[in-house]
Amino acid sequence: MPAFMSHLPFLYQNGELNRSRAKWLLVLLATLGLGYWVYERTGHIYIDDARIASNVVIISANTSGWITDFPASSGARVKAGQLLVQIDDRAAELELAEINQQIATQEAEIKRTRRQRGMVSQEQSSELSTQQARLESAQAASSKAKSELVLAESNFQRSSTLRDKELISKRRWEEEELHLKQAQQSFKQVQSAFTQSSAKLRKVEAQQISVDLLDQRVVIMQHQLKRLTIQRQQLALDVADRQVRSPIDAVVDKTFSHSGEYVSPGRRMVMLHNPEDIWINANVKETEMRHLRLGMKAKVSVDAYPDHLFDAKVVSIANATSSEFALLPNPNPSGNFTKVTQRLRVKLALQQQQDLLKPGMMVEVTINTREL
Fold it and tell me: For the domain with range 44-83+253-368, which CATH number is right: 3.40.50.10420, 2.40.30.170, 2.40.128.110, 1.50.10.10?
């Protein structure tokens, strides 16, 4: 008999163990234990082959070059933006400095051309105003000379008529003739000046195209400046890519390179994960899925810490069994079929505690199906 029965006085009669009572006690205890086991089994789902998972980030090189500094080390804690690997960037920095110099030169040339355009435009505007004034003056003089010519012609015709009738002297007629010739000569001179002023005005107006040419030159240089700016952005990206930084707050799991090595694009250098971003991937039998709901609470026992329980909660249930994602599915076309219980992936949220939980650890999960 078990030793604990010695502490139960009702099992003894006249100082001797009553075997019948002891037998019934053992049967009762066994029944209670079996009942508790059945109760637990009907109200809980047990998974003993689950694992802790996390998003493991593999940092690869985006450019080629020699590694000049490798501050990352396995197990180290890093912050988002912290330098992990430094690739030689001397050539890239020189190219960036050269393109910056070209951009500065281009900007100065644009500024000089704009000033030149303003000066030329101002000079031409002033010249245009001057020629327009001269043309207006020549036009007024031409109108005056033409009026004087018309008057002189009229006086000469009247003098000629009077002379034919011998009503005026020959001297008076000759004076009118001389006045007519002077008016004709003056009109010719004024017309010549008007023609010259018109020609100069047209020349000044034609020179206005030089301002448009300077505007077009500025536009061309601005396009060239835009192209240089894009090249500078590309070179700046190349320089930034040579400083490989952590994208998240994480812990370094493994390193694959060392300082002094030559790396090429695509080569992995560091593997890391966020220790706070962890969960459990559990494969639940399809026969138990009818009891499972989102939000159900669970207790987790980690093999590494068997005396410590962790809380978890169901946050995701797969829509297809794990066999549907197998590389070599088995459709059983021959008819030889063996029924195997399928499993579905269930994700449980898990809270990190003192950095005890690591991706890949084996855990046992007990999901309480009686309450959410």
Answer: 2.40.30.170
